[in-house]
Amino acid sequence: MLDVTALLEEIKASPFEEVDILAPHTGVVSFPDIAPGAKVHGPRGTWKEVPGTTLATLERERNPKPIVAPQTGDLVWLATDMAGTFVEAGTPIARIRHYLSKEEVQQIILKQALHLFRAPDRAKYYFTPEVDLKIKASGPRSVTVYEGLELFIMSRMKREAPVSYQGPEGVIYAVYFQHNQNVDAGEPLVGVCPPEQLTLIEDVVVRVQTEWQEQG
């Protein structure tokens, strides 16, 4: 049985994640007027249409491209000693300390409490039409899954194949993939809550909402 109290205390002791920003391609790097300690912002807006804070610019073949913050947080390191030099793809150029929100903490704990059904291959995944209609009408928790249920359609290299659920019977408590986006092999598609664990899961949600103090 998952010890929610111990896990929540562990996260409280280190309530952030550090995100390394890597050069996406080769080029000459330059930096704006920004220094470690500054607050930076990730993409904003309803559709994340407003880009994050510019952390650096990579110029390749006279074509400058900004590198922006993917998360909101504190800029803890910036590779200013590399300014004006040529860097390879994958070179670390910045680090952001992102403080976890209530929603993020809740998801961390739920991923340990739920049974995660993972993608067998890198592909696009869709619920079968019957399941999709039920989710659109009443939400994912209206769907009970069981061993062998044909739950997904996997679309890969212009071919489609059914994917059956493997795991304990329960309701779909969380959906982790998005429509028409590739999912890497091993990444979770859904989180399933067996009936006997529903009280534990609801306790997780309540505990996080009442106890977690957001920072940053």
Automatic annotation (TrEMBL):
Upper lineage: Bacteria, Pseudomonadati, Thermodesulfobacteriota, Desulfovibrionia, Desulfovibrionales
Domain of life the protein comes from: Bacteria
Name used for this protein in its record: Biotin/lipoyl attachment domain-containing protein
